[in-house]
Amino acid sequence: MATFKEILNTHPAIVSYLHRMIGDEGMELIDKFPENEEHSDEDLAAMTEINLNSVRNTLYTLYERRLAEYRRIKNNETGWLTYLWHLEADNIEPALSQDVDVVLGKLRARARYEEHNDFFICSQCGLTITFNQAMDLLFKCPTCDEPMGHFENELLLNALKTRIEAIEESLGIS
After folding, report:
1. Sign, Cα dihedral of 123, 125, 129, 135
2. Domains of the chain with bracketed CATH
3. Which of 103, 104, 129, 107 is nearest to 118 (CA)?
4. CA of 121: how far to CAs of 6, 114, 118, 134, in Å?
5. Which one of 41, 54, 80, 144 counts the least CB within 10 Å of its CB?
6. How does residue 174 score in pLDDT terms, banded at 50, 70 and 90?
7. Contacts of 155 by beta carbon, 8 Å cutoff, 6+ apart
8. Which H or E element spans position 69?
């Protein structure tokens, strides 16, 4: 079982993924989070000198992806609940895989949409609509009433297909 620090030191793609998810302060929190220990959000804020709200936001974001877990304890005298957090390095790859699947699905759907539609564009305002919409509008722009011309989306479609192929290749799906 690898630790978060080991994974971050050996997998730049995972570092990039986490950075996009939690930002600079979140990465700093992960970097300073004591390995294999539980700490409250208040303790983590004090240890790392990161704003408590930022610590909580980071922990909740990681929790949504099952990259952080907590244990709840209750103070019997005051009734207050304390959440003790720890990181779950074993869940990084499944979380990343799930997010990549979502992105890949959206890219595929957009590529199908681009492939199965014919588009028209207004040369004045740049509005782009499908053939059916343009036909309903008698090929006149609904915004500026200018005539609409055919829009060639081959460049966009090729870019989408290239991106999909690159992701599939990196996942070994080809």
Report:
1. negative
2. 4-90 (1.10.10.10), 95-171 (no CATH)
3. 129
4. 51, 14, 10, 9
5. 80
6. low
7. none
8. strand 68-74
